[in-house]
Design goal:
There is one protein chain. By secondary structure, this protein is mostly helical. About 60% of the residues lie in helices and about 0% in strands. It has 8 helices and no strands. InterPro entries: AhpD-like, CMD-like. It comes from Lentzea miocenica. Pfam families: CMD. This is Carboxymuconolactone decarboxylase family protein.
């Protein structure tokens, strides 16, 4: 479905800010907070984010690379995310982040004790909560933008 955007309006600003200001502005603040306040390393952050982008099919999210202090993941990082199970480009934390993102999005009922045992070997509880909130934000907002056809028009501010 494509949302009717009035001529001259920014699609993201209109849908998120004007159509449902009581929800959209809070959602935008959550989306920005995930990038501005993360304590996660760039590689695990991007492994999870890009895995959700692949699942959602959000064109903008697939093209976006988070930058921190002038550093981004390598250009072929997305290929490693696609092959997260077998790639040698990931350490344990990045691999688990991609796995968690995929399982959270596609099989959250299947997150079993074996998975949590591996996860808590490499992540603190605080990091797991942060990663979970980030994955949830990417899942809902990337999917929203894709479902409404906004992902081809999405522009996020620099952080």
């Amino acid at each position: 479905m494509n949302v009717d955007i009035p001529e001259g309006k920014d699609p993201i600003g209109y849908v998120w800010g004007e159509m449902v200001p009581g929800i959209g502005i809070a959602a935008a603040n959550l989306s920005l907070a995930v990038y501005q306040h993360t304590t996660l390393g760039l590689r695990e952050f991007e492994a999870a984010r890009l895995r959700i982008a692949q699942i959602n099919g959000c064109m903008f999210c697939l093209d976006w690379r988070t930058e921190r202090e002038g550093v981004k993941v390598e250009d072929d990082f997305i290929d490693a995310v696609t092959q997260w199970r077998t790639t040698d480009a990931f350490d344990d934390r990045a691999r688990l982040a991609a796995e968690y993102a995929e399982r959270y999005a596609l099989d959250h009922h299947g997150l079993d004790e074996e998975f949590w045992s591996r996860m808590t070997e490499h992540y603190s509880q605080v990091e797991i909560v942060e990663l979970t909130m980030s994955i949830g934000a990417w899942l809902v907002f990337g999917r929203l933008n894709r479902v409404f056809g906004l992902d081809a028009m999405c522009v996020l501010p620099k952080f």
